Amino acid sequence: MAEAKKEVRLVILAKFKEDATPEKIEEAITEYAKLVDVIPAMNKFHWGKDESFRVNLHLHEGYTHIFESSFDSYDGIQEYEDHPEHAVFEQLLLSRTEKLLAFTYEPTIVNLQK
Amino acid sequence: MAEAKKEVRLVILAKFKEDATPEKIEEAITEYAKLVDVIPAMNKFHWGKDESFRVNLHLHEGYTHIFESSFDSYDGIQEYEDHPEHAVFEQLLLSRTEKLLAFTYEPTIVNLQK
């Protein structure tokens, strides 16, 4: 099994405020996605909204959205955190969310037989 | 741009109990990973442990581990939830964790210029 290139991921869970309109939420997502193009250390980015109700799971703790980005190293995350465009985005996100959770990890991908 | 095949992801954040030994945690991870081979609807699986301290981010809310699995549909998650092997694993995980968070979503992958 070839060793995979090191990957570090940053998962953000966000609970947008009750009064955040769909347009304000959409704008925050767009601004987050734009960071991929301006911060070299940010390799990949995806996002989604909570759909727990579809599977009758009620353990999402009120978080409404997830954002996951990928870096080559912890230094890459630091570069992202320190980037001036990130600071601008962070203020926007903080102003529109009630709570945030950030989880940093190196994924171990389980090899599948299928 | 070709339309991607539908993908639904289930993210679990777990905080293992203080008295859960590394062996007990390792066993829980192994048992989770085994589900990929026994539950047809489960397409992919990866996990990781919290490394937030490396990037000076302190927003992980005490969660120690993340598990992410991938399905073709919400029905696939239901199949996973209803599988008897999942029920056995769930009891094991619940007995060793202080809290769990589950977030279900359809990822929107942002196309990169790089």
UniProtKB/TrEMBL annotation, chains A, B:
Listed SMART domains: Dabb
What start-end ranges are recorded for coiled-coil regions in this protein? none
Superkingdom of this entry's organism? Eukaryota
Q: Name one Pfam family in it.
A: Dabb
What GO terms in the biological process aspect are recorded for it? pollen tube adhesion
Q: Quote the Gene3D superfamilies the UniProt record gives.
A: 3.30.70.100
Give the Stress-response A/B barrel domain ranges: 8-105
Q: How does it assemble?
A: Homodimer.
| The protein's name in its UniProt record | Stress responsive alpha-beta barrel
Task: Record the organism.
Answer: Vigna unguiculata (Cowpea)
